[in-house]
Write a structure and sequence with these properties.
The protein is α+β, with helices and mostly antiparallel strands and 249 residues long. The protein folds into two domains: 4-184, no CATH class; 185-249. Helices cover 53% and strands 11% of the residues. The protein is built from twelve helices and four strands, in the order H-H-E-H-E-E-H-H-H-H-E-H-H-H-H-H. The protein has helices spanning 4-16, 27-34, 47-56, 92-121, 126-129, 137-140, 143-147, 167-184, 187-192, 203-216, 222-237, 242-246, and strands at 37-42, 71-78, 81-87, 153-158. Strands 1-3-2-4 form a four-stranded mixed β-sheet, sandwiched between helices. A hairpin with a 2-residue loop joins strand 2 and strand 3 (81-87). The protein is globular and about 60 Å long. 31% of the residues are buried.
Length: 249
């Protein structure tokens, strides 16, 4: 089941955007209303493209210590505002999920922790958060400041697979994926569209049907829909029966 905190963030986003009851959701249009971020589409996006774009505009960025590689997307943030880069040559559903994933990182890792720190410590803390002055001793011991990002923030959504070795990064990626899916295909909305006799189907049939629903109705890319369909079916129906697991008809 999706975490209540994840659901709350997604609901707050769509509330700020004026809600959206139609699917697939127009996430790109919602970003303009809900968060202080702009979207930049670049054909065949690479790390170097992001760095060149930022330096040409004389933005206060540190050296990007990442090897040049193709990206689905990237989010950068500074002074409470963000830029979300997308590979404009990706398929529509892939772009939609990439945008949702980067919006999730912007909210979970940057904007929301920053806003909580400002609410607790006052607007003067923005000078610390933006890297203009060091934190005082009192500020450094505050837990909210410890969770807020200091200076320029950047996150790359790579194309290559592979295991994520650092537990903290793996957790952040999973949280961003879960929020991205709740933004695009809320668990409650998906469940409401299941037919009344759905529980009578085999577990494999349920997975296939939910996957089709995620792709066709909610615009989730097939590469993501399969794993999410499996996750939802296990939550709702506790996985395949013992007979199905053994392959007995």
């Amino acid at each position: 089941m999706v975490k209540s905190s994840t659901r709350s963030v997604a609901q707050a986003f769509w509330g700020a955007a004026g809600q959206s009851s139609s699917f697939p959701r127009d996430l790109e249009g919602a970003v303009a209303w809900a968060i202080p971020a702009a979207i930049v589409r670049v054909p065949t996006l690479w790390v170097q493209d992001v760095e060149i774009y930022l330096r040409q505009r004389q933005l206060p960025i540190p050296a990007i210590r990442a090897e040049d590689r193709p990206l689905h997307g990237c989010v950068c943030a500074y002074a409470g505002r963000g830029l979300i880069f997308l590979d404009g040559t990706d398929r529509i559903n892939e772009i939609r999920f990439t945008l949702a994933h980067e919006v999730a990182h912007f909210l979970l890792d940057y904007l929301n922790p920053r806003q909580r720190a400002v609410e607790k410590l006052g607007s003067e803390i923005t000078a610390v958060l933006d890297g203009h002055r060091p934190a005082t001793l009192a500020e450094r011991v505050d837990a909210l400041l410890a969770r807020a990002h200091i200076g320029f923030y950047v996150h790359f959504m790579h194309r290559s697979g592979g295991e994520i070795e650092v537990e903290e990064i793996a957790t952040a990626e999973n949280d961003a994926d879960q929020l991205a899916l709740e933004l695009l295909a809320p668990e409650g909305e998906v469940h409401c569209l299941l037919p009344l006799d759905f529980s009578k189907k085999t577990y494999k049939q349920r997975e296939i049907n939910v996957r089709r629903l995620l792709v066709g109705r909610f615009g989730v890319p097939p590469s993501i829909a399969g794993a999410y369909a499996s996750q939802l079916c296990r939550q709702w129906f506790n996985g395949p029966s013992f007979k199905e697991w053994l392959g007995v008809r």
